[in-house]
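Working notes for the structural subgroup meeting. M.R. asked for a predicted model of this chain before we commit to crystallization trials. I am recording the input and output together here so anyone reviewing the notebook later can reproduce the run.

Input as submitted:
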Amino acid sequence: MQFPAHSTSFAKCPRPLLPVLTALCALSASALSTWAAAPAAKPAAASISLERIHSEPPLAGRLPRAPELSPAGGWVTYLRASEQDSEINELWGQTLPDGQPQRLVSVSDLIGAHSVRLTEAEKMALERRRVQGRGITGYQWCGKDDRRLILPLSGDLYLVELTAAGPRSQRLTFDDKEPERDPVCDAAGRQIAYVKGGDLWVQSLDAGPAAPAARRLSQGGSETRSTGLAEFIAAEEFGRQRGFWWSPDGQRILALEVDEAEVPLKTRSQIFADRMAMTTQRYPGAGERNATVRALVLDVTAQAPAQVLSLPPEAEYIPRAGWFADGTPWLQWFTRDQKQLSLVEFSGPQAQARTVLVERDAAWVEVQEDLRELPTQLRSGKPALLWTSEASGRAQFWLVDRVSGERQQLSHQAEPVARLICQREQGLVFSGATERGRGREIFELNWQGQARMLQPGEARRWRDARADLGCRHLLLTESRWGQPPRTEVLALDGQQASLPLKGDAPDPLLAAIAPSVQALDIMAADGKTPLNAFYLSPLKAGAKPGQRHPVIVKAYGGPGAATVGWRWSGDTALLAYLQRQGFGVLMLDTRGMAYRDRAFTRAHAEGFGKAELADLFAAVRQLSQLVPSVDPARIGFTGWSYGGYLAARAMLDADTPFAVAIAGAPPTDWLLYDTAYTERYLGLPEGGRAKPYAEANLISRARLLQKPLMLIHGTADDNVLFENSLRLIDALQNEGKLFETVIYPGRAHGISGKKARLHLDRTQTDFFIRHLKP
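Returned structure, recorded in token form:
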């Protein structure tokens, strides 16, 4: 699961108190003294309404989206919301080092007054990418220079050339029936490949009538077979949104052929307000058949048969693929249980497979994001490979001999590295966790393993960056608690002043309402692991000193994400609104969540609803000791996706300390959720391995509901299928339990749209007011 792209802090789904009690005395003395560097308390709290939160202009201003540096570092481009509608994106850019913002292209420039058309497959692909907004939803630079960009729009592809006279747009494809998807240019920027009708096509970008027509490189595309597209599992669970890669010389393409004929077909009833559409989807539930994936090398220059790259039968998933600089293709493959990740290269005319290295973990191996060749670091006559491993107990960079597989640890950070940003002759630039995962900083690392922070400054901030091909410029984004992110272009040689990306300034109201936050050190249920938590006190007008108040707990609880950090949250204004309704708010990251060491992040191994539920209950029971004004009898919980599972699980428990809960888009039976995610943590549900699934199942616990519960789900959810909520609804009704249900017709996993989001926030706030107020 991954975070959906909307303001609410929820991620993609599909996570004995005696030691805690002995730690309370120490915690109560120390935790209250730890406060965030937030604005000073205001004499009177400024007011905010849900209507203002969801109206125009956005409180945070129109922030740049999807910023990118051009390959040669001459431009910075980004998507910016139109003045008329903040959900409609336009493409903007600035020349470096000091150019002014200019609009490069809008939807009307390309298709006039016509409406944007998207197939169901394209909508699902945008959902996999968590793309926000409408209009221009994506773009990419073409080649290694700064002349061309490619835009997919309404099923066709457009070429945007940046000329001295200004941007010039050209439509590349003209098929109104079949969309061209996932376009990628070769390194020279002279040809483009894309997928149409399930097959891979290549087209020249040379101008003029003599330019050759598009050519089909693969054959056999159908409803169940495609070449060059990422299947559902690859996109949703491994973050691989592509299915083909150009060779460095532009003469071959490494492509993945996907056959989904054996993947179970699920039917989704997309219930809209005025109609119902039945949509089928190839969706492999836990224990079911995955797609069959083959790796092919296709020759672009000749009509030669595809070369099949041989992999062993146990190679269940291909999370990453690419080419080494010498023209050798490589693949990473996982076993089905994801406890082994292998890097394999295919060399010579016969593409002979050779395993470069194998990574193993008794729980599971994380996806490898940072494989790179390091030309200045030779091992056995070839560039060393950069590899990220948790072998030391936390994610660190290692150097790998591509010939022998020998490893050498390069970084020795006190906290996990996050990701490689770029490489330079003298070393690496990367981002890494700080302050127990609550912060993120950018570091420079030399080849001797010595690291230093780039631009040291105040603590309690969140910084990350992207880079151009030469690692000359960084596109640096920085945010803090309660402050919208700001992005600037930074020259690493220090010879140029930084160039900020300009957006609309935030509404001054945002600064007036931004909540102060108290950082709590809450102890996990194991009695020894500190958990990250933020607490926001209520700001109800007329509240009497010492009067006890209700609390809303917001948590996710699942693997792969963290919500407590010194960074901007899209929920900032909503949190301020809840404070003004008289609620305190506790934000909590339980064991199993991200940005901590391996021992912390593996807490979900072999079970859901265990460690994270114990931590959640322990935190709630500690809260009234740490904040004496909290009323322990009036604590509610809200979560979405895995957080929705955790909310429902918390209420289906005889020992729950919660008075009420809201469960949004919850997985209720993990046999309904997809293979790669669920089996990574619970194992295969067969051969005596069904117990973790039975223990995590919510349907069988319906009889335990004793307190108010609200279930929320979108009927078009293709991630956590609507069937999950329907099964729990049926079970609760059969047990005679009273509960509330809110359905969003036609909405997917993330409830999108200003009106729908406003209704969602009104609904949840009303529920808490009805049940938690005196």
